[in-house]
Amino acid sequence: MNFSPALQNLIEALRCLPGVGPKSAQRMTMHLLERDREGAVALSRALQGAVDRVDHCSRCRNFTELEICEICSDPRRDSSTICVVETPGDVLAVEQSGSYRGIYFVLMGHLSPIDGIGPEEIGLDLFYRRVLEEGIEEVILATNPTVEGEATAYYLTDMLQPEGVKVSRIAHGVPLGGELEYVDGSTLAHALSGRRPVE
Amino acid sequence: MAGMRVNLQPAYILHSRPYRDSSVILEVFTPEHGRISALARGARRKSRGGSAAALLQLFTPLLLSFSGRGELKTLTAREAAGAAVSLRGDRLYSGLYVNELLVRLLHRYDPHPQLFVAYGDTLQSLAGDGGVEAVLRRFELKLLDELGYSFDLRVDGHSGEAVREEAWYHYHGEYGLVERGGVTDPDRPAYAGADLLAIAEGLLEGPAGPTAKRLLRHALASHLGDAPLRSRELFRSQRSPAPGRSET
Q1: Is B222 on the interface with A (CB under 8 A)?
Q2: Is there a contact between B234 and A129 if contact means CB atoms under 8 Å apart?
Q3: What is the DSSP letter of A113?
Q4: For the ranges A39-53, A72-86, B75-89, which has the lowest average pLDDT?
Q5: Which CATH superfamily is domain B90-231 in?
Q6: What would the CATH number be for the domain defined by B4-80?
Q7: Where are the domains of chain B?
Q8: Mean pLDDT on B140-145
Q9: How confident is the model over A150-164, as pLDDT tens digits?
Q10: Which of A48, B23, B85, B212 is in the most buried spot, having the most CB atoms within 10 Å?
Q11: Separation of CA B228 from chain center
Q12: B38 with B24: CB under 8 angstroms?
């Protein structure tokens, strides 16, 4: 038996979501049509609205409905310090830590040659111009502590240090509340090599 | 391919990409099973003292167990087999370049035990203080050899005569090295016989170095297809002025 074309279309469309296969898509479709038509309408409106209005901030590349996002246009924030992160989720995480008052630059990924992602794809040319034009004093590299994240951090360091910009990398080591016994070797090695004199 | 179960096989991860909420799909290089794709379930999930992702990083000697029938295996166990090789700057880009070569050129499930050893040695050399170029050339030669694309550096592949020091040679995908005739074709790179003989002797550091680089790039390009190697960009843009830099 075949579903009606509109139904089939919806099932196919839902499959564009990561981790949704044919079966899950079918279940979602049945649920929306049978039990939650209002939810379905709200979902379609929200989707359409987001796709129409949300774009990248022209300064930090984060998602925003404005030309320049709220963080970039906030005059109370320290615009001489810029924190480079991989994803919008990372911005949220740093914001929630409540310990940072500067601005951000969101790469939307990291350098990954095998995936065809080079310096241009993550907006490094834009970032370079911005740092020079705006007289940024410190760049904090908060890319992930993975090999690709490190490669991205090195690339940025090589690009910015000759320009006399202070470049720093976030520390990595033992998580708060963690127990040394259960920390993996590489993390512990990082924590040891990055140790600080007690003040 | 029939169901397979592999127990704690030496392995390096060449590439990983996130999958669903907490898993990753890994491209793994093993000596006996060659390149394998494997799913590491829950590798990005938080656990006490950091997630499994901390171990499943590039350039880390590992012991991995897999099982599964299809193209995509499931990772069932993992252990460290040594300390992660720590690469910085250009050496890190070199490591990414080597990984990209392997992902692009190795076929799945083709065993290459010797290449696996060479890969480990290459990483160790990259982490050392020596020159990077010769290390990469040696690996490229080994890779071509293992894939069955090697060519004789001492013999003209067309005429069968020995390579002469004073002559110039073209690289030809089918024959290997072919002596350049009387006409010089500016579009086809030519290589000095003396340099080729030096490369054959393993002298990759000296004056033959640039020739080795051009020749191997040419030889690899004919097997890589049209898409360029993206890791090379990392080096190239280091050397040329950064984009948007004002002339001073």
Answers
A1: no
A2: no
A3: G
A4: B75-89
A5: Recombination protein O, C-terminal domain (1.20.1440.120)
A6: 2.40.50.140
A7: 4-80, 90-231
A8: 94
A9: 999 999 999 998 889
A10: B212
A11: 14
A12: no
Cβ–Cβ contact B239 with A under 8 A: no
Residue with tokens 């020739």: B211
In the three-class reduction of DSSP (H, G, I as helix; E, B as strand; rest coil), residue A194 is classed as: coil
CA atoms of B177 and B171, how far apart (whole Å)? 5
Mutate to test the interface with B, among A143, A146, A159, A184 (most CBs of B within 10 A): A184
pLDDT score at A21: 87
Residues B39, B70 contacting (CB under 8 angstroms): no
Indicate left, alpha or beta for B148 from its phi (over 0: left) and psi (-120 to 50: alpha): left
Establish, for the pair of chains A and B, how many residue pairs have beta carbons separated by less than 8 Å. Answer: 98
Cβ(A148)–Cβ(B234) below 8 Å: no
B14–A114 CB contact, under 8 Å? yes
SS (H, E, C) B5-43: EEEEEEEEEEEEEEECCCEEEEEEEECCCEEEEEEECCC
The predicted model scores a pTM of 0.84
pLDDT digits (tens, 9 = 90+) for A168-188: 999 888 888 878 888 877 788
Note the pLDDT of residue B245. 41
Among residues B190, B193, B201, the alpha carbon closest in space to that of B165 is found at B193
So what's the pLDDT on residue A143?
Answer: 95
- Chain A residue numbers with beta carbons less than 8 Å from the beta carbon of B50 are 175, 178, 183-184, 187
Q: What does the alpha-carbon distance between residue B244 and residue B223 come to, in Å, rounded to a whole number?
A: 34
> How far apart (Å, rounded) are the C-alpha atoms in residues B25 and B16?
6
Tokens standing for residue B86: 């720590």
Q: ipTM score of the complex?
A: 0.80
Q: What is the per-residue pLDDT for B204?
A: 87
pLDDT tens, position by position, B44-65? 776 655 567 778 889 999 999 9
